[in-house]
Structures are given as C-alpha cells and as structure tokens.
C-alpha cells in the first residue's frame, strides 16, 4: 500500500508541476491530480486538502479556478454544508477550448497591430507577422482537431465552434 501512496503523491505533484510550467498555480494542478485518481470520484474540500496537503482556504480558491477552467465541477453533497468536487467529464476539452479562444483573441489583436504598421517597412511588420500567422493557424486548424477529439471521446462541447464569431 505504501508504494501505491507514494506513486499517487508523485502523480499529484507531477500534475502540479505541469500546471506551474503553464503559468498556473501549482496547487491547482495538485488538486486536479487528486481528482483525477481519487476513489470515490467526488471529494470534499477536506478530503482534497488532505490528499493534496493543502489548507482548506487554498483548496477552496483553487477549486474555483479549476471549475472556471471547466476541468472540475461541484457536485451535490451527501453531507450538509460541505462542498464536493469531481473531475468534469470532457474537462480537458473545455480547458483546451478556453486556451484556443485566447489564441483567437490574440489573432484579432495582432491583426489590429498589422493595420497600424500598414505601409511601413516590412522588416518592422515581421515581428508581428510571426505571431499573427501562429494565432491564425490555431484559430483555423485547432477547432476541427478539438471537434474530432470530442467526437472520439463522445463529448458534446455544447458551445459554438472556436472559429465562429459571435
């Protein structure tokens, strides 16, 4: 049993480090790590805090962040006045969708920047063109990839496609 617990702690910390490398709080990743491998899937804030070795306040803050990212969801509690959470089915797809929407917004911003540099030296435009082309590619190509992945996983993204403008 001890070997299993150590492997679980390493997994939880690995997810935390991954999140930290993405510029997100390590604790959010650790909490997600707990919810990805826990049994039962629904865990109270206290259970999560114990497994993640975190304070209840930190767990509360990070669960809100994870829920807003679409990775986890709050579930009905079997115990009054207790908050329970679980990994949300399709959570990674929602998370990726949000990241791609950010890239789409950056495409719009770089487009405006290129307009500012219209008629100027092409060498000045090159810095912005690289970013523009990358974000345009993400906006044009990744929605199909995301839809294929959702279909493969049997998930309904339930929102507009990334390339669709509001």
| Gross morphology | elongated
Helix content: 55-70%
**Uncertain stretches:** 159-166
| Total beta-strand segments | 3
Number of domains: 2
* Largest sheet entry: 3 strands, antiparallel
Describe the overall structure.
The protein folds into two domains: 2-87, Winged helix-like DNA-binding domain superfamily/Winged helix DNA-binding domain (Arc Repressor Mutant, subunit A), CATH 1.10.10.10; 91-153, Helix Hairpins (Orthogonal Bundle). 67% of the residues lie in helices and 6% in strands. It is built from six helices and three strands. It has helices at residues 2-21, 26-37, 45-52, 56-68, 91-116, 122-153, and strands spanning 43-44, 72-75, 84-87. A three-stranded antiparallel beta sheet has the order 1-3-2. Helix 2 packs across helix 3 (45-52).
């Amino acid at each position: 049993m001890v070997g299993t617990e150590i492997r679980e702690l390493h997994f939880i910390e690995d997810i935390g480090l991954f999140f930290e490398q993405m510029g997100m709080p390590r604790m959010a990743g650790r909490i997600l790590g707990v919810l990805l491998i826990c049994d039962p899937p629904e865990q109270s804030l206290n259970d999560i805090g114990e497994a993640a070795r975190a304070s209840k306040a930190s767990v509360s803050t990070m669960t809100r962040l994870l829920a807003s990212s679409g990775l986890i969801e709050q579930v009905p509690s079997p115990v009054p006045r207790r908050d329970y959470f679980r990994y949300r089915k399709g959570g990674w797809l929602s998370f990726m969708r949000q990241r791609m929407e950010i890239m789409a917004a950056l495409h719009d911003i770089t487009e405006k920047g290129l307009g500012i540099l219209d008629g100027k030296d092409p060498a000045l435009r090159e810095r912005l063109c690289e970013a523009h082309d990358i974000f345009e590619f993400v906006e044009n190509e990744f929605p199909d990839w995301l839809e294929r992945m959702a279909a493969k996983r049997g998930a309904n993204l339930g929102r507009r496609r990334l390339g669709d403008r509001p």
